[in-house]
Design a protein that fits this description.
- The chain is α/β, with parallel strands linked by helices.
- Helices cover 42% and strands 18% of the residues.
- The chain has 9 helices and 10 strands.
- The strands form 2 sheets. Strands 7-6-5-8-9-10 form a 6-stranded parallel beta sheet, with helices on both faces.
- Helix 3 links the parallel strand 5 and strand 6.
- The longest helix has 18 residues.
Amino acid sequence: MKFELLQQLNRARAGRRAAILVTDTQSGEQRLIEAGEAAAGPLAEALAARFRSGRSGMAEDGVTFLTVHVPPPRLVMIGAVHISQALSPMARLAGFDPLVIDPRTAFATPERFAGVPVIAEWPDEALKEQPLDAYTALAALTHDPKIDDMPIRAALEANCFYVGALGSRKTHGKRVERLMAAGLSQELIKAIDAPIGTDIGAQSPAEIAVAVLAEIIAALRKGPASVRAAA
């Protein structure tokens, strides 16, 4: 790999941006394509699929090798609640880096979340040190708009690949009104998965965690639109 390409790749990785190194195995020619860049021609569909899967491999032309570099996906949970306790280890097993944020110090304790980073601060402060990005999923789980609304707004504006919020349809209707009053467009608000999680009839915190993780994985691997289409 040329030094200039390596520098470009290192900058992308440092900024948690996905990139694919495209190598012509016959000529040795290489180029780097970052997620979001316009890609036309016969490789466009293959590149999009590789960005979703995160897997490297030979393109269908049998000549072009696609080396995929994607940031490790993160799951930020707003609320140190029972659902978060169940969801955190599940998410880690599935390959996500979990993080719990909750200003309520009685709940946000290391003892309740073994091996999972917990930040006992208000989300606006915590997210200054843990900025959201396109490879982050956010699950708002407190039922408290004073805690949930700000990170939901931030996640939508950061183009997080999944944004979900706990609550009934009535609760979400009021949330939509608040977000619109805060200046968010209806189109942006439509990206929120609410009520959160795949409809499997979940009742216990562990079952709800399974439902949430299923939708997060679907959004990561199939695209956010797949979650909205199934709603």
